[in-house]
Write a structure and sequence with these properties.
- The chain is α/β, with parallel strands linked by helices and 279 residues long.
- The chain folds into 2 domains: 1-37; 47-277, Rossmann fold, CATH 3.40.50.1820.
- The chain has helices spanning 2-37, 39-43, 102-110, 132-148, 163-172, 189-196, 210-213, 234-243, 264-277; strands spanning 45-46, 62-67, 73-79, 87-91, 95-96, 114-118, 156-161, 179-183, 220-226, 248-253.
- An 8-stranded mixed sheet has the order 2-3-6-4-7-8-9-10, with helices on both faces. Strands 1-5 form a two-stranded parallel ribbon.
- The longest helix is centred in the N-terminal third of the chain and has 36 residues, at 2-37.
- It is globular, with a radius of gyration of 24 Å.
- The protein starts with a helix and ends with a helix.
- The relative contact order is 0.11.
- Residues 87-190 form the Serine aminopeptidase S33 domain.
- The chain crosses the membrane at residues 21-38.
- Keywords: Hydrolase, Membrane, Transmembrane, Transmembrane helix.
- This is Alpha/beta superfamily hydrolase.
Amino acid sequence: MITIILIPYFDHFIKAMLKEIGWILVIILLFIAILYGLQRSFIYLPAKITPQRGDFQANDMSKIKLQTADDLSLLAWYKAAEDNLPTVIYLHGNAGHIGYRMPIARKLMDAGFGVLLVEYRGYGGNAGRPSEKGFYMDGEAAIQFLLQRGLTPQEMVLYGESIGSGVATYLAAKLPVCAVILQSPMTSLKGLARFHYPWFPFSPWDKYDSLKRIDKINASLLILHGKQDRVVPFEEGKTLFEKAVEPKLMISFTDRGHNNLWDNTFYQKILDFIRAYCA
């Protein structure tokens, strides 16, 4: 008799629980769908204001425009090299704008090297939306600018910072530049996403698969990486280095992370490398 009385309550409890679980699943799926649709908003963090050279002690650089294959006109800052020294094409990370990269640009220019600070689409007041394909076109526009000025690939150094390492690797696999410098590089965005979000069931649209391209680079390679990097783990850079072909050099910084590599020792390592292989 007691069992018969409890059955309706038990059925009601099960139905209520299933309904709650159903709503939870709907919320989870909706959350994942939103993340998937907005993923580029989490990957690319541009400073959209146009940097002014005077605010970053860059008045000795020319403000130029890079013309992309899809008809965008992108802001860039440029200073030519001295005495036939190479020019460094600087491809920055996923946040900020070119003005924040002036400390390293200044060190390079003071050493006589040319510098082309490339501002991506959607960054620094530029039109367009950031994407892997778009960034590749932005990098290609920078190379075309230098080629049109009479530079050869052997007079160019590609410098890729963080996500910019994916752009530099892509370009270097296609063009025999003098040297490639990768700061805090990742093997791929897919692998990095899996590291940070192992629960997320989908791969990002943008791949930046440097691991697939690194052994196709026919240039001297320098990788710099902090062992305390929590954004792009040190093992990412090490894996790239192990697959890359000679000549190659990897410099690790024991007590450094992702955004605190820059100091005089760091700068000097870069200058020494370029002088050894390109100057």
